User: Fold this.
Amino acid sequence: MRTRTFRIWRGDASGGGLTDYRVEVSEGEVVLDVLHRVQATQAPDLACRWNCKAGKCGSCSVEINGHPKLACMTRMSSFAAEQPVTVTPLRAFPVIRDLVADVSYNYVKARETPAFAPPAGLAPGDYRMRQVDVERSQEFRKCIECFLCQTVCHVIRDHEENKPAFAGPRLFIRAAELDMHPLDARDDRAAHARQVQGIGYCNITKCCTEVCPEHIRITDNAIIPMKERVVDRRYDPLVWLGRRIFRRDQVEQQAGASVAAESRGPEPAPAGEWVISDPAGLHRALEVPLPQGPAVGPDGKLPLSETLIDRAGAASPFGDDLSFPVPPERLRYFHPDAEPESGS
Assistant:
């Protein structure tokens, strides 16, 4: 065994700093092994989030020597023999305590993403897809929700004010996965990415792709195609011009209708559409309907069917079938610091 220096950030939301620990390291160990040894021998109150220790749950995300990494997948042999190893919490999110950051921002943004919309007229067991139809989006299903891409994204990391309007790379690959899904019935994924998720903030620096432990090509295969869809449908000059060209008979007809409608006032917009009025009295309905997020109850919780549905292709914000060992009445979807509701 060899003794190494670990510098671990200790503190909470009110402040903190780095504390040095001299700890023995065995050959083949990873950073998470050493953190466990520090807990066992020197700092039993050290807070560190982890679960599977196999690089598949994403729980142990921290920053190691300034680089967002999974502690369970970062081998000690990757550092020089005398190099101190500095471990800090994810910088883009508020600290709860020590190495545990509050990543609830990502779940808030996930709930704003419309879930999979099954095709009309098909029962769940009747879904049929070919492998060639799902190859593009299948890559995005490997996401383990580690949020390393979120914390390294400079739009979130360096500009706290962007968070309300920006979903981040993890949710962009979710939007791309659903937009490329051969059976998804929604046609407003690109509009949602622009209007709600703020994909226009991204300037494709590819830092999210570089830190992804599952090697998902987030920028090239998800963000850029979604940006192309937004540009094609929203900013293409030919499409823009085509939407504004009316035949003369259409102009006269709409102008006459607008005169007749003055006495009864403006008509309500069709459901799911925007209506824009211009000075000439013409009303144009945009082609893209307003995006709708998944329905939540009066208490702000997702229905249990979102997480407990027991069939393939469940309408979950995270895509995969989920099962829980706890009874449904004990499930909670609120931050631990939130005040508990009566009866919840």
In short: Residues 2-100 form a domain with the Ubiquitin-like (UB roll) fold (CATH 3.10.20.30).
